[in-house]
Amino acid sequence: VKGIVYSVKPLDDSQLSKITQHYEKRDKIAHIFDNKIDRKLIGGFVVRVGDRVEDMSFQNKLEHLKNKLLA
Prior knowledge:
Blueprint: E1 2-7, H1 13-27, E2 32-37, E3 44-49, E4 52-57, H2 58-70
Parallel strand pairs: 1-2
Antiparallel strand pairs: 1-3, 3-4
């Protein structure tokens, strides 16, 4: 399965390998990830596999915190 990891700076081989291992263990299928730069991210990363998106960016975490505080 091919996917994309978006990050604010290039990921090294070790970081990309850890992400790949996580998804392979969870999905029980081989994954191949490309790393693309997204300068709009503050930090963290966003993973897209097919039509599934998992947002683990600081920007997303801040948005969730803001929503909790305003609720």
